[in-house]
Amino acid sequence: MSIQEQYKKRVRELLSSGAVKMVIGYQAGTTADRRRPLFIRTPEEAEKLVLDSACIANLSGYLVTEGLLSDEKSVGIFLRPDGIRSINILAAEAQLNPEQVVILGFDGNDKEVTALQGEKARDFSAIIASIKEHAPEAPRNPQLEQIEKMSPKERFAFWQAEFSRCIKCYACRQACPMCYCRRCIVDSNQPQWVNTSSHTLGNLEWNVVRAFHLSGRCVGCGNCDRACPVNIPLRLINAKMAGEVLGAFDHFAGMSETQEPVLASFKKDDSETFIL
Ligand code: SF4
Ligand code: SF4
């Protein structure tokens, strides 16, 4: 039985037993290589489920839809390891109760996918630990390596040129599972912290603020740069920040549901003089 058929069966079991009220998965998209989210509420609807190598979007952001988990019922969700790391971050930041999340885990490459064993985020901790262990030697993006070889002036010019194309549509924010605030500070106009119009300086400000906001929280799922209509390579800046945070603090985002956020925690015995 293919992995897709195995999981259709599991989804039907979960829904008919009442273990979950809904399963969030994938269905066929508008073109052969695209998938879109599927919200399965009845065992019959499981027939529409598609699970293959084109299922790449991190669906975890749907779990923090206002009110979805407030009735304390559980929801099933298809996730790759990056999505499972997102669940740990959302739990650590008190955005959801991980006991209400039933994970239908899978992983793979652009040819095939395989099932991951387990249903709670903690069941996958060995997989996540192994990803962290291999993170420093993981294949680097050649474009990131090129950017790292640039002088600070060249690098600044590179990002300024990239960000100058930003149209402030905020699709990157909407697609990111870690951007769950109901009202983002950039939408506030009294006072207005970040200019909403699209111009070179304001665009740089918005994108740099967002990169800092994601440092130590980004799981590298790529939802943001796939959503960007002007193809700004957002994942590169977030990957760079993740590498810096790993090197400086040995912090790999989404290791566990109790992991402290790297920019919101400190050690009392830190020898740095800035801690009083
Ligand atoms: S910043 Fe982009 S890559 Fe990182 S978690 Fe958000 S959507 Fe995923
Ligand atoms: S998705 Fe792209 S264009 Fe839209 S706000 Fe984000 S960086 Fe700018």
Strand order of the largest sheet: 2-1-3-4-5
Small molecules held by this entry = iron/sulfur cluster
How many strands, which pairing sense, and closed or not: the largest β-sheet? 5 strands, mixed
Estimated structural class: alpha/beta
- In N-to-C order, the SSE pattern is HEEEHEEHHHHHHH
Cα end-to-end separation:
61 Å
Number of helices: 9
Show unreliable segments: none
Percent helix:
25-40%
Q: Write down the overall mean pLDDT.
A: 92
Total strand count, please?
Answer: 5
Q: What's the alpha carbon Rg, rounded to whole Å? A: 20 Å
Q: Given the C-alpha coordinates, what overall shape results?
A: globular
Query: What is the assembly state of the chains in this entry?
Result: single chain
- The percentage of residues in β strands lies in 5-15%
**Count of separate structural domains:** 2
Brief descriptors of the model:
5 strands, 276 residues, alpha/beta, 2 domains, 36% helix
